Amino acid sequence: MFLLCSACASAPPRSPLLERVGRSDLNVAALRVQVRDLARRLPGMLEAAADGVSASSGSREVHRAMLEFKSSGVPILQATLLQPDPVAGLVDAWALLAQLQDALPRRAARAPPAQVQRARRELEAMEAEVMALWRDLSGREDISRERALVHAWAAAHPLTGPLTARESTASLLATVSTRSGVSPLGAAAVLLEDARDLTTRLDLYAASLPRQARWQAELAANDAADLPALGAALAELKRAVDLLGHFDAMAAGAQALVSRERAAVLSGLAQERMALQAFISAERQAFMGDVDRERAAVMEALRAERVAALRQLDGVARGWVDHAFERAMQLLVRVCLALFALLLGVGVLLVVARGRGRAAG
Fold this sequence. Notes:
Blueprint: H1 2-10, H2 28-57, H3 60-81, H4 86-107, H5 113-138, H6 144-156, H7 170-180, H8 195-226, H9 231-360
Helix pairs in contact: 2-3, 2-4, 2-5, 3-4, 3-8, 4-5, 4-6, 4-7, 6-7, 8-9
């Protein structure tokens, strides 16, 4: 009992979120790392696919369409994969890629069909990476039903307007997670976010925001070429410059913020650890005192029982000895009587024999 209590006290407390996710042996920390890696790579693949269509067409209209496609698709794809709940982010990104596959032929209608098909295959390769991670998460190789559900939802909710106005995938998440046996982590996943997530977000934004600002500037320049007034274009350009300045200030203070938060977290953990050790020590001392008292009581009870048992055995042994001695005395008396009778019989025979001998003489 003492060993069991000691083992329970020494084991660190574990949150249910740190246990396994879905039906596989993938834990939440590993899932979050893989989803964050997708958030780093997939937007670059989407940008490359849009640039390939734009470069092969030579059309100003296609160039503008692909510029809008990547300027809105890259940040939305990053936002879906950087959600606090990695399960919800994975399903949302899967649905977004399916919607982009359906929307690409409409957005690049004047582009060469071969290049459009190539870009679509790149989007399918991006979807294959998401599906591979979903296989690891659900623990099942066959996820064709989930893919059919995602593409059916995408077909029912096409991207007809801006990507920022796309419909929520909450219903799709509930259906896919129920079919796959993977439960979304929900609001509790926010508890697992730490300074590493903030650093990952800042790194991704530092790499993508300058390009997004350049795309917005190109869109503004295209609008300025079509419109007689340049006021709106200049306002957009000023907003992009202000956004970059704000990002520079945030990036400059991010390191100090991360250091302060790290120091505060480590201090809090040290205090909690010391309080937990003091509590465990007090509980152990109290438990050992109870064990000592119980041991003394048990030993006293055993000694009393042993004394009573010895006394009882002593009385029984004495009775057995007295009974054996009494039977031995009875046996000895009988043997003596038998010997006396035998000797008496022998004497009588001898007297009779001697009398007969005298009579005969």
